[in-house]
Each structure stands twice: as C-alpha cells, then as structure tokens.
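Before a computer can learn anything about folding, someone has to put a protein's shape into writing. The three-dimensional part falls to structure tokens, numbers that each stand for a local backbone shape. The protein below has been through that process, and both of its lines are reproduced in full.
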Amino acid sequence: MPSRPPNGKAVPGFRNRTDTIMATDPQQQHARTETDVPSAEAPENGTDTGPDAGSRPRRPATTGTLPDRRALAEAFVRLCDVVARLRSPEGCPWDRAQTLETIKPFTLEETYELLEAIDSGDDAAIVEELGDVLLQVVLDAQIGRDEGRFDILDVIRTLTEKLIRRHPHVFGDQQADSPQAVMRHWDRVKSREKEKQRRSIMDGLPAELPQLARAARIAERAARVGYDFPHREMLFDKLREELDELATELFGSPEIPHVPASVDVEPTPDVHLTDPTVRERVESELGDVLFVLANIARRWGINPEEALRKSNRKFESRVRFIEEQLRARGKDIREASLIEMEDLYQQGKRRGR
C-alpha cells in the first residue's frame, strides 16, 4: 500500500485522546478513542520511534537483543489493529478494495524504496521505508484472513519454525563455523523440505526476479553442487571468448573496430538490426556476455543487480547535475552541445556526483 492512498490521509500517531485514521474523503474521517486502538507505551529510554526517529541520537549498538518485550508486543498488536480497522466495513474504501493481486505492485515499489533509503544512510528514511515494507506483510496477511485463507499468526509461526529448522547449528546440536557451512545446512534442510515439490536444483527461484540477479542465483546453485570454474580468474578468459563471439555476429569477425571514445566528432546514426535471425543471434551472444559478467560479480562477492543499480543512480545524478548547471546559465539541456554536456559531466564526476 502506498504510504498515502489516493486522496487519503496518513495515519497519525494515535497519541491524543482521539485521532483520525485515513479515509478517502474528509467527510468520511472518523474519530477513535485510545481504547479502540492499543497504544504502545514509549520505550523505557524515552526514545521516539515516530516519523522523526532519524533525527534522534542513535541507541548504543547491541547484537542479538530485543527492544522492550511489552512495548514490542503492544506496538505490533496496535499496527495489526490499525490495518484490520482499515479493512473493516467502517474502514477505508481504498484498503477494503485491495486484494493480494492488486497490492503486488506496491510491495515491489516499497522494496525498492527501502533499498534507496539504505543507500542514503538516512536512518529516518530507513525506519519509514521498513515500516512500509512491514505494512505490506501485515496488510497481505489481513487480506488473507478476510478471505478465510490464512492470517498473520500463520505467517509468523511458519517463518519462526522455518528459521529454527534451517539453523540446526543454533537451535540444535550441529556445528557450523563459517557462512559456507551455514549455507550447506540451509540447503540440506531446504532440500528435504521441498523434495516433493522440486525435482531440480534450479526449481524455486521467483519468476519475477530481475534477470541479472537471476543469472547470479542460478550459477550459484550450480556452484553449490560443484559445477563452476575451478579458478574465478578463468571467467575473464570466458568473457573474452563471449565478446569475440558477440563481435563476430556484429562485425563479421572477432576484431572489434577501434574507434577512440571522443565527443569531438560528428555523430553517426545507429542502424538497428532488422533481420530477425541475426537479431536473435546477437541477443543470444549479448546475453552470454551479461551472464559471464554476473558470474564475475558472484565470484568476488558482488551483487550484480546492486552494482548496476548504483551505476544507474550515479549516471542519473550526473545528468541531473548537467541540467542544473545549464539551468543556472539560462539554458535547456536540449540546446547544449555534446561537448558542453560532456564537460559538465566530468565536472560532476570530479565533485563526486
């Protein structure tokens, strides 16, 4: 669910005697007393956990500990109660209209917004976006309950039991002294759980997984059973081989024409491939190049999807810098020359944009 539904009003903190909850029309807003919605007490240390949480001093770092259990339980019940009320007959028309299918795009959107918040390092933004992702889980579970299929208790219990089963080195008597050993335990237990559902080590990957990430994941699964290059440096020899094959399809031979990168030349219009057979061969070879690049990233512990996402954001930021600088000169980017834009691009790069 978006943080604010169409024409809706964000859920306030429920700290006063009465508060409004979201409605699609101001005339539909209704008041609730604090007896309607459980109100979580403030944490014992008095730290605010609301929208401005990022502005407060950070708590002392601790590992493997919970917040105050009573406050945690009350806060979670309160959240579930708010979502249930939104889905109730007297709740929000937008929330009542949602199904597991219609909510899917928002789940994906909120996940990417969380990634951006994590990249920003802004704790307040991370708290907000984690909340939006948590809302997707609670709302989906409430929809499931409303349809008589499952509820949030099923979700929590299933997850908890799975985590205990797949960590026998923590909750059982097995040993694991490295992340690799942990993954072996995880794969072994998961394989036993899914043996009736999955006939291949490639089964079970989400169909909607971005393809660059999928390339790394399927290669990782093959590597777990020993199907991988013995030395990761060999992947660069494989990359050269795939680039030669791509060049052969594009230029007729493995030799790539040497054209120095420069902006001080007349542009040559691109001519797209029109022959379906040639296009399919080039697409296949380009895919092989991308697959090898994803595996190079995997062998050095880099997430290729994350690497590409950061490069995209970096390029976008530098183009925005070009626009800002040109705007300050009273000029539109569409009026600038390639040389002028490249000069500003390099300026942005030097400034760390």
